[in-house]
Specification:
Arc Repressor Mutant, subunit A; 3 helices
């Protein structure tokens, strides 16, 4: 699903930036993908995706 319409960024792209690129906060995401740098309507959802992805990844690492 599209999260940032201004830049055409999807939730999958944000998850990939977190997992593969080490993005851990909105500042890093803004620098990497430009999310939240235009109108800002996507910031809340983008932050939630970052948080959920970090939690999911940490749980996965504990299990493995």
């Amino acid at each position: 699903m599209y999260v940032c319409l201004c830049h055409g960024i999807t939730d999958s792209a944000i998850k990939k930036a977190v997992v593969d690129g080490g993005v851990g906060n909105m500042r890093q995401l803004r620098e990497t993908l430009g999310v939240g740098s235009q109108c800002g309507k996507c910031v809340k959802m983008a932050q939630q995706i970052i948080d959920d992805t970090i939690i999911d990844e940490s749980l996965f690492k504990e299990v493995c």
